[in-house]
Structure to design on (110 residues):
């Protein structure tokens, strides 16, 4: 076995993670407190600063599902727009670009 590295201090709920194909980052879906929806974050696999990938003030808050592209460059996620409960597909560059909505119609419920 190897050493264990603590990546995050605390979250209220945690609903999944993926490791990027280059093994540099862990992308995860979690809520920071009981009053917030799930959001999308990245953290270096060796530990370090956590970066929020979605932008809840611009919409794209309360992430319900996500996937990392095979090249490890983007995360694609389902989230409503600001003030809405309908889910749309969004994409964000893992280097920190602003998320953008990539579907023009609502995504059907699963």
């Amino acid at each position: 076995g190897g050493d264990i590295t603590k990546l995050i201090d605390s979250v209220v709920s945690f609903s999944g993670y993926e490791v990027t194909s280059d093994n540099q980052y862990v992308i995860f879906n979690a809520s920071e407190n009981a009053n917030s929806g799930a959001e999308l974050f990245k953290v270096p696999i060796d530990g370090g600063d956590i970066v929020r990938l979605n932008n809840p003030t611009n919409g794209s808050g309360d992430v319900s599902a996500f996937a990392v592209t095979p090249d490890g460059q983007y995360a694609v996620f389902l989230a409503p727009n600001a003030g809405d409960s309908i889910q749309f597909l969004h994409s964000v560059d893992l280097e920190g670009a602003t998320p953008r909505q990539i579907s023009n119609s609502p995504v059907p419920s699963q």
About this structure: The mean pLDDT is 80. The two ends are 39 Å apart (CA to CA). The longest strand covers residues 13-19. The beta strands are 13-19, 25-31, 39-44, 51-52, 65-68, 74-80, 87-93, 100-101.
